[in-house]
Amino acid sequence: xxxxxxxxxxxxxxxxxxxxxxxxxxxxxxxxxxxxxxxxxxxxxxxxxxxxxxxxxxxxxxxxxxxxxxxxxxxxxxxxxxxxxxxxxxxx
Length: 92
What we know:
The protein is an all-beta fold. It contains no helices and 6 strands. It has a 6-stranded antiparallel beta barrel.
């Protein structure tokens, strides 16, 4: 995708959109907190993802164009409701 040196050239849009997350055969609901050209920040409740996990994400909701992508978890933080950073590997 986009090289490390160019990542900050892309602005993040702060949004709170419904998100569907697929990890293997498991499906979860969550929120997309921010979105950029290279990835998204997501929040999910009671789901433990590991750095490197491959995920499929799909956005939906009022005022949000349908969007889906494949990516990998690159960072996690939080307690209870966990926040993750997902880097896109392919967009659809």
